[in-house]
Amino acid sequence: MNAVTHDSSLDADARAAVTIGRPADELRTLWLRPDTQSRIWSHFADVTPIDERTAEWVAHGPAGGEYRWRTELAAGGTNELRWSSSDGADVANAGVLVFQPAPGDRGTELHLDVRFDPPGGPLGQALSKLFHLVPREIVLKALYKFRALALTGEIPTTDPQPAARKGGTDR
Amino acid sequence: MRALCWNGVNDLRVETVADPEILNLRDVILKVRLTTTCGSDLHLIDGLIPTMREGDVLGHEFMGEIVDVGREVTKVKRGDRVVVPSFIACGQCWYCQHDQYSLCDTSHPKPELQEPLLGYPTGGIYAYSHAFGGYAGSHAEYVRVPFADTDCFLVPDGLSDENALFISDAAPTGFMGADFCNIQRGDVIAVWGCGGVGLMAQQSAMILGAERVIAIDRYPERLAQAEAFGAIPLDYTKVDVIEALKELTGGRGPDACIDAVGMEADGTGVQHAYDRVKQALYLESDRGAALRQAMLAVRKGGTLSILGVYALMDKFPLGLLMNKGVTVRTAQQHGQAYVPRLLEHAQRGELTPAALATHRFSLEESPKGYHMFKHKEDGCLRAVFAP
Ligand SMILES: NC(=O)c1ccc[n+]([C@@H]2O[C@H](COP(=O)([O-])OP(=O)(O)OC[C@H]3O[C@@H](n4cnc5c(N)ncnc54)[C@H](O)[C@@H]3O)[C@@H](O)[C@H]2O)c1
Ligand SMILES: [Zn+2]
Ligand SMILES: [Zn+2]
Q: What are chain A's domains?
């Protein structure tokens, strides 16, 4: 692929990183709380925890499309979390979140990598049509929301925006 | 409630919209007492800032009374009269803790819209396009204020609504611009623009100990206000600004130049004609006459403090800055860092922001207020709305 024209936001393998001024163990605990998962992925999918390690995902595409899968958390090291979709997923995917100490007093770096494998080939472009979001946006937004939750206990929102946003078009 | 909504370029209407509600535990709802126009709104109204949506409620400079409080709000309460900076800041992230509140890491609900443009999302701001968060603005009867404990500042008894109002935006922006200049004894500061922001920068430079402040604009009533604040007025349509500044500084040039004009600078001559045509054709988003002039005027090794809002200027004479060893400081205002101090300066009468409130309207008349403000009719410096 031509390095100059390559648009990595369309890769089906999406990565993003954020730094959060909190210790890794605290962040890990927060990440694993069932309600955290449903809150940070809400722009992309409804996540319903089944048990400690398993969750049910339903992503909504444009025009009423629905895509379902189940994820299972793998046993892993203390500085990372790994999960992947079970057999029969509508859109197979796998994720890894690595916790690294940030330099100085900056806290902890979170590196998130989610690889989607949509039917019809691993093309992010197909995926973004499926979900109406490019993979990079899915991942970045989840991390950003997680950082907000970790630092402030809330996720910034204007939704449902009661003040005159009529869902009108951008101008 | 009633609110002033943006419906497209130069299309503002007062409409009935849903009342805001508490959405997060640290939100409050403010009953707006006063809300005002800002030069930044003109960039939105003129269609120079993308990602506005039909129906967006305008307004980001305001003060009011708290009428509803989220469960985790501890420092302010119902009935408090407060002023709120235009950028929304959490108080808990690294940026907020380093006094860079407009860069807050957690207050932007739509970071995916802004990250591709800037590399990293900034904090959210009221009514400044969806790329800046899509928060509803204050030109309304009520406005929702997140992170109330960090963002609501109690207005001391005895300080008028008019004086408190501009401590939301024009005053902290101007003060930050002067603070960027690291003013030393004997320093001469030149300020381009005598709108609300420029005038507040001029008064702030004096508070911070400037020897002399020079104010540049073309509107006589604005220059007169600058002079009333103690600045030396310069009409750029009547004098050669660069020569006049050399004359006023013994050939040294101003120690620091503050740009309080932004992307819709007026100018004279060929460069201005070129900028206007390019902007009209959407080949360029910025007309940068004031900024270019400030870069030329600033002394060697001096400071250029940029408060005016710019997009992606395509012709930028970087060589002037490089060869002259100029320090550039710029930001969207970090209001929360300055508001407590500004309230004190205002109480002592050293800062007199109420002077900006030249025209007052009801909310229903706000489109008319914007028209006057934009065209600077009848000496309008800021149109203030009382919903
Ligand atoms: N950094 C921030 O956080 C922040 C906050 C508020 C406003 N702003 C920006 O600051 C700028 C000024 O805001 P304002 O509310 O005072 O606007 P304003 O429109 O009231 O005033 C701008 C003034 O600049 C003058 N001007 C135009 N061209 C000039 C030139 N070539 N030389 C000298 N003066 C010139 C105009 O005559 C006008 O008086 C805007 O770009 C606004 O978006 C930035
Ligand atoms: Zn403003
Ligand atoms: Zn913050």
A: 14-152 (3.30.530.20)
Q: Whose CA is nearest to atom 13 of ligand 1?
A: B39
* Complex-level ipTM: 0.92
Residue B2 in tokens = 């009633």
Which residues in B lie closer than 8 A to residue A133 (C-beta atoms)? 112
List CB contacts of B172: < 8 A, sequence separation 6 or more.
B85, B333, B334, B335, B337, B338, B339, B342
Report how far apart, in Å, the C-alpha atoms of B117 and of each of A112, A139, B51, B84, B352 are. Answer: 21, 17, 12, 27, 37
The candidate with the shortest Cα–Cα distance to B108, out of B86, B133, B88, is B133
Query: What is the sign of the dihedral through the CA atoms of B95, B99, B100 and B104?
Result: positive
Task: Please check the confidence at residue B278 and state whether its pLDDT lies above 80.
Answer: no
How far from the centroid of its chain's Cα atoms is residue B378's Cα?
22
CA B102 to chain centre: 12
Instruction: With beta carbons less than 8 A apart as the criterion, state whether B386 and B34 touch.
Output: yes
Distance from CA of A115 to the nearest CA of B (A): 19
DSSP structural state of residue B352: -
Structure-token pair, residue A104 = 């100085």
Q: What is the mean pLDDT of residues B312-334?
A: 91
pLDDT of residue B170: 98
CA dihedral (B262, B267, B271, B273) in degrees, to 10, reads 110
Which residues in chain B touch residue A151, judged by CB atoms under 8 angstroms apart?
Answer: 90, 92-93, 105-106
What is the rounded end-to-end Cα distance, in angstroms, of chain A? 34
Pairs across A and B, CB distance < 8 A: 111
Question: Are A156 and B22 in contact, with CB atoms under 8 Å apart?
Answer: no
Residue A46, beta-bridge partner list = A58
Q: Which residue of A has its CA nearest to B140?
A: A163
Strand-pair category, B359-362 with B383-386: parallel
Let me know if B173 is exposed, middle or buried by CB neighbors in 10 A (0-12, 13-18, 19+).
buried
Read off the pLDDT of residues B128-177 as tens digits, 9 standing for 90 and up: 998 999 999 999 999 999 999 999 999 999 999 999 999 999 999 999 99
**pTM (2 decimals)?**
0.94
Domains along chain B with CATH numbers: 2-169+333-386 (3.90.180.10), 173-330 (3.40.50.720)
